[in-house]
Model the fold of this input.
Amino acid sequence: MIDRRIKVRHVQCFVEIVRRKSLKDAADHLSLTQPAISKTLKELEGIVGSTLLRRSRAGVELTEEGAIFFRFAETSLSALQQALDGVERLAGRVLTIGALPSVSGRLIPRLLQDLREVAGDLRVRIQDGPHGFLVDGLRDGALDVVIGRLGVPETMRGLEFTQLYNEHIEFVVRPGHPLLHDPDLRRLGDWPVLFPPEGSAIRPLLDRYLIANGVGEVPDKIETVSGALGRIYTRETDAIWIISAGVVARELADGQLVRLPFDTSITKGPVGLMTRPNERTIPGEAALRIALDRSVKALGLS
Done:
C-alpha cells in the first residue's frame, strides 16, 4: 500500500533532482531554495526508508534503490500530469481536430453542423495541413483526433484508425479544357499538373496508378496540398489537378471544375478517424463519433 505521507512535492523534487543532476538546478527550476529541496529529499528518503541519491563531484547519483524509485516515480508524475491536463480539457470542453485536405472541403463542414446538434456546448478547433504534420501533432498531444485518408503503414505506427468510408483520386480541369475533347492519360505531361507532394496520403496510390497506365515522369509538376491554390489555379489555367475526390466534390457538383473520364477506381482508399490508443480523456469523443456517423450518412459516403 502506498504510504500516505508521500506527497506530490516529494516525487516532483526527487524527479527534478535526478533529471538535472543537481539540487541547486532543481531548486531553481521549481522556484525553491536549496535548503527546502534538500529537506524534501530527506523527508522522502525517511518515508521510503532508503537512501535514494548520493552526492558526488559530478552532482548526484542514484543508488540502486533510487534507480528503482525513479523509474516508477517519473512515470507516475507524467501520468498524473496527463490526468490533470485531461480533466482541464474536459472541463473546457474543447475538441481539437486535425483535418486532412481529403475531408476539409466536404466532410468537415457537414460534421460541424452535426456536432452543434449533438453537443452544442462543445467548442471545436480545426487544424488543417498535410498528413505528416497532423499525425505528428496527434502523437504529441497537440491534436485530439485526425480525420482523413489513411496514410502508409510507417506513418500510422502507434495510432488507431477507424474507417468511415472509401474515396478515390480525381483528375480535374476547368470546363472546356482541351484534354476533355480527347482524353488520353498519356498526354498528362502536355500541361502543368498540380500534384500531391511526397509524404501525402494519396501520393503512393497515384504513383502506382500512373506506372500501371504507362505514364512516366510528369515534366511540369507543381507539388501542393493547398485546396485554395488548386481551386483558383485550375479554374484560371489549363492545369490538371490530381486530388482526392472529397476535396473537389463541391466544385464538381457546381460545374466549376470537370472530372476527366479516367478510371481511377484502383486508387480507392479508406478515409477515417485517427486517434491515440488507450486515450480516455478526449473531450466529446462520443459526440464526435455520433456526429461523424450522421455526416457520413447524410453525404451518402457510407
